[in-house]
DNA sequence: CTCAAGCGAGAGCAGTGCTCTCGTAAGTGG
DNA sequence: CCACTTACGAGAGCACTGCTCTCGCTTGAG
């Protein structure tokens, strides 16, 4: 139904994706700030005003790129998870984190776009939310599986956090103990912190062997969410 | 020697700081992307070209703002530390982290500027490094004090990380065990991750009581660097 | 007192996002 | 099969940006 319904429509999605491709190229090359509609149009051999038939504004183009980036990152993470599906939870956890880091290093500007400072007056439309949560859901799944199979360690949480933890658990993973959901959310943020520091140069002249450092830190974070530590290397 | 050496020089530093103030205002209001030299000049009643007598380019203005932001953040952290100087290490740790988070929430655009995605082709000049490391040094000091007074817990690190950990220790805190320095660097990155996720909206519709969540998470991270956990509330 | 240096003003260049209008080509209803 | 609406590309134009260059005035050092 969506295929071959008029050459017009087909051409439209083709041009749309050509615009996104060229925009992604410029984004990767120069960063979001230097992404220019006119330059994209120029490169595609069209005039700038024509581009507005496809994206109503530069921000809309950026939003489209952001969603694609989330999806690309999510796919990379899921692929890594699938490749490690026959190993234990800890190794899968590390594999997924590694994949996220790898994607971030390979697509620094796109990573910055989705996890760095948001563009000026930008608030994420709901469309992005689903794409954005893929990695988080994946990590949740790993912990959930681990919980089902071997059980996870728990650290008590203070009373004032209990309501928060229970709401979170109900939303994310009702089958997990609240302590774990809590730690899981924090863990994901912490992994993001490690990647961000590396990517944005805060580790320059501080950490040298960043891959080893990352793997180690991420393992410790995994321990925090209850994944058993002394899993066979 | 630096005071009152010619009205010319005095006027210069006055205008320079007036420019920075107005630029900071625009930065806070609209974000780095919308900071415009011409708008700054306009607001100050001068013509845009005059501004180039003080800052050779827009990037140089931004760099100046970045250094000031680092200093402002560092001061906030150090003030919080001083205010909690008669308490235990864990509470001081939490106080400093809290101050950093507070500063970040109060200056989101400036925080984004220094810890979010770096501006386009920008590489931090050495001038910024010193200002940038103030918070890290402060956290190091807390852990170092704790180590001297009560000792800190250690978690063994894998062999492949030993050289890294030892180099790091030599650079940062020779009096600390390598396991701790290692964990400390990771901890700082993780704290940054928590703040970043909150600031950039990743906790929207996920975490509600963010202050409590942050304090708790930061306490757990403190535990990771060996600060004793069951310190009296 | 002289004179080079510092400074502000203005014009100007190349670039940007975005709007509007105008022909033309494509697909649709009669 | 033909008229008509719709989608689209081109072009001109507006307001804005960072940045450069030149021109005079002011200032402070020699």
UniProtKB/TrEMBL annotation, chains A, B:
All copies of domain HTH tetR-type, residue ranges: 13-73
SUPFAM superfamilies attached to this UniProt entry: Homeodomain-like, Tetracyclin repressor-like, C-terminal domain
UniProt KW keywords: DNA-binding, Transcription, Transcription regulation
GO molecular function, one term: transcription cis-regulatory region binding
PROSITE patterns per UniProt: HTH_TETR_2
Known DNA-binding region: 36-55
Signal sequence annotation: none
Record PANTHER family: HTH-TYPE TRANSCRIPTIONAL REGULATOR RUTR, HTH-TYPE TRANSCRIPTIONAL REGULATOR RV1816
Protein name (Swiss-Prot/TrEMBL): TetR family transcriptional regulator
Source organism per UniProt: Streptomyces lacrimifluminis
Lineage summary: Bacteria, Bacillati, Actinomycetota, Actinomycetes, Kitasatosporales
């Amino acid at each position: 139904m969506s295929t071959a319904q008029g050459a017009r429509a087909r051409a439209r999605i083709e041009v749309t994706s050509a615009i996104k491709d060229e925009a992604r190229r410029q984004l990767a090359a120069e960063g979001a700030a230097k992404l220019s509609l006119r330059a994209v149009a120029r490169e595609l051999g069209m005039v700038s005003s024509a581009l507005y038939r496809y994206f109503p504004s530069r921000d809309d183009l950026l939003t489209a790129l952001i969603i694609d980036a989330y999806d690309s990152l999510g796919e990379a993470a899921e692929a890594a998870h699938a490749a490690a599906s026959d190993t234990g939870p800890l190794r899968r956890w590390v594999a997924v984190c590694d994949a996220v880091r790898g994607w971030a290093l390979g697509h620094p500007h796109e990573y910055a776009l989705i996890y760095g400072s948001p563009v000026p007056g930008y608030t994420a439309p709901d469309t992005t939310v689903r794409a954005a949560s893929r990695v988080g859901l994946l990590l949740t799944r790993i912990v959930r599986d681990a919980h089902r199979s071997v059980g996870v360690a728990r650290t008590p949480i203070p009373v004032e956090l209990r309501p928060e933890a229970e709401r979170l658990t109900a939303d994310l993973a009702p089958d997990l103990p609240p302590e774990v959901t809590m730690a899981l959310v924090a863990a994901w943020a912490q992994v993001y912190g490690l990647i961000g520091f590396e990517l944005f140069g805060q580790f320059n002249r501080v950490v040298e062997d960043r891959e080893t450092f990352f793997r180690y830190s991420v393992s410790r974070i995994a321990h925090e969410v209850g994944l058993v530590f002394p899993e066979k290397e």
